[in-house]
Amino acid sequence: MSKSVLLKSSIAKKYWMAFTGLFLCLFLVGHLLGNLQLFASGEEGRRAFNEYAYFMQHNPLIKVMSYVTYLSILFHAIDGILLAVQNKKARPVQYAVNNAASNSSSASRKMAVLGSIILIFIVTHMVNFWAKMHFGGLNLHKVEISVPNAPKPQELYITTNQNYIPVEQVEVRDETMFYNKEVNIKIGEGYKDLHSAVMAFFGKEAHGMKANPLAWLGVLLYTIAMAVLSFHLMHGFAAAFQTLGLRHPRYTPIIANVGKAFSIVVPALFAIIPLYIFFS
Amino acid sequence: MKLTLKIWRQKGPSDKGQMVTYPIDNIDGDMSFLEMMDILNEELIVKGEDPVAFDHDCREGICGMCSLFINGEAHGPDRAVTTCQLHMRKFNDGDTIYIEPWRAKAFPVIKDLVVNRGAFDRIMASGGFVSVNTSGNTVDANAIPVSKIDADKAFEAATCIGCGACVASCVNASAMLFVSAKVSQLALLPQGQVEAKQRVLNMVQTMDEEGFGNCTNTGACAVECPKEISLDNIARMNREYFKGMISAE
Ligand code: HEM
Ligand code: SF4
Ligand code: FES
Question: Which of the residues A27, A53, A72, A260 could staple to A20 if both were Cys, CB 3.0 to 4.6 A apart?
């Protein structure tokens, strides 16, 4: 291969931007499909969501995909900032008057600013949800069942093999593993109650998780972040095809329209979920 | 027409430079923008002041020398024209007109509104040519069949006059439109195939070394280009570069 492979040239850097950007668009679709399950209400919805979260954390194929996603975000962000720094240097003296609005969209000129806001959002988002899922801080999924003649309801854990275990009979180790209190053997694994954590974060008290007093701020910032993502994609989606040289009089208008639809529909659906939880 | 001109004045490459205001009167709508500049300069010379330096040569939109950034746009508010072909009728009596040089690290100011576009020449020297037999038995170019579509596209790309308005307009001061036009005009023709892979690699490398920015596909270049060079060329160069990158030896 020649000397200019990978990151050497401006164009090679842009291939990576486009490639990782489009991969992240795919990731957004997958992530959105998962999140949409939050619309299902009640115990069934909670259970389906927590089972889904468990699956996402344990399926080997999804694990590989998640590492590719982390790498893509990192690479896209570092490469994007590198490009943006070079671009700033390429014009050391600014114009006194620049009528850029007459020849280009503001999103196309502000990709690095939009991207940096998205990066800040991704970091806070991961602290709020991903870190809890991966490094602890979540309750286990348990249900209360009222038993006739008993003074208080019976608390039961749900296990990953679809059994119920009374809470007082087991000891929890390694966050999610149930061990029999009398004989030291593992008898099951529980689900992390991510569903209730999400509900609580966006202002709904759920299963022992207190409603976040700053839920309104969380919802507001989340919605703003999705608007920023929308602008980033409004330019980025179609631009990625141009960068990869995929331009043709027949297909480019279709790509442009799909890009517009994608950049409105996907962030809007993401944003509706916390709004729905907060206001329902 | 009576106008107020705000013009970038800079004595030399190392001078800091500043915007200077010049009132001007009796400008006719049928004058070209450069004729208006001539009138200003004659007035300055009569007053014993230094005339404003600006680039121009053919004054008929074909040489690519004229290069003024007028009211925030390369070659002014009109589309598909060079500064020399811009008419004063595009402006109104009483207007204030800002006139600045192309701004890019790769295009350093020499004096006032004149910038050094030698970076474009060095990009061309690094690959913008074809090797032909000059030993006296040169083959007639028309002896090689070329599809009409490709011939037209190559011709359109070849209409780039190298003015640099694309760089001046781009928020990143990227030279992608210019370089892609020069790559395309050769990549589309059989005569250009011999050096095709190495050409695109070398021209892009020189482009990067000269300090132009990276393309973010804003499309500003194609809007401001006096020759309406299309973004198709940038996409073509992106394909050509990929071919070169993965297969050149
Ligand atoms: C889910 C998140 C994101 C998605 C789906 C996404 C998607 C995209 C796409 C498709 C492009 C177009 C690439 C091209 O022009 O060829 C792009 C460009 C860009 N992105 Fe992102 N992006 C995301 C996050 C970020 C982040 C976190 C940053 C951090 C700084 C960022 C910075 C940029 C920059 C600077 C560009 C312009 C690059 C260029 O055209 O040279 N993006 N993005
Ligand atoms: S592509 Fe257009 S704007 Fe750029 S140098 Fe050529 S003619 Fe000028
Ligand atoms: S002076 Fe030749 S193109 Fe304007």
Answer: A72
- For B174-197, write each residue's pLDDT tens digit: 999 999 999 999 999 999 999 999
Residues B102, B12, single domain; the answer is yes
ipTM: 0.95
Q: Do A245 and B235 touch (CB under 8 A)?
A: yes
Same domain, B56 and B89: yes
Indicate the pTM of the whole model: 0.93
Ligand closest to B213 (CA) is: 1
**CATH number reported for the structural domain that contains residue B220 in this entry:** 1.10.1060.10
Which residues of chain B make contact with A244, given a CB cutoff of 8 A? 238
CATH number at residue B74: 3.10.20.30
Q: CA geometry: angle at B132 spanning B128 and B137, to 5°?
A: 160
Same domain, yes or no: B219 and B101: no
**Under a CB-based contact definition with an 8 Å cutoff, are residues B92 and B104 in contact?**
no
pLDDT tens, position by position, A92-126: 999 999 999 999 999 999 999 999 999 999 999 99
- Identify the closest residue of chain B to A246 by CA–CA distance: B235
Domain count, chain B: 2
Number of neighbours of residue A7 by Cβ within 10 angstroms: 12
Q: End-to-end CA distance of chain A, in Å?
A: 58
Residues B75 and B139 grouped into a single domain: no
Question: Distance, in angstroms, between B40 CA and closest chain A CA?
Answer: 21
HSE (side-chain half, CA atoms, 13 Å) at A273: 22
Residue B20 domain boundaries: 3-110
Cα angle: B227, vertex B233, B239; to 5 degrees: 170
Q: Of B54, B83, B110, which closes a domain? A: B110
If you measure from the C-alpha of residue B68 to the centroid of ligand 2, how many angstroms do you get, rounded to a whole number? 13
Residue A150 has pLDDT above 70, yes or no: yes
Query: Of B75, B110, B145, which residue sits at a domain end?
Result: B110
Instruction: Return the residue whose CA atom lies nearest to atom 7 of ligand 2.
Output: B160
Q: Using a CB–CB cutoff of 8 Å, tell me whether B171 touches chain A.
A: yes
> Which residues 151-170 of B are in CB contact (within 8 Å) with A?
169
Point out the residue among B105, B235, B245 whose CB comes nearest to the CB of A12: B245
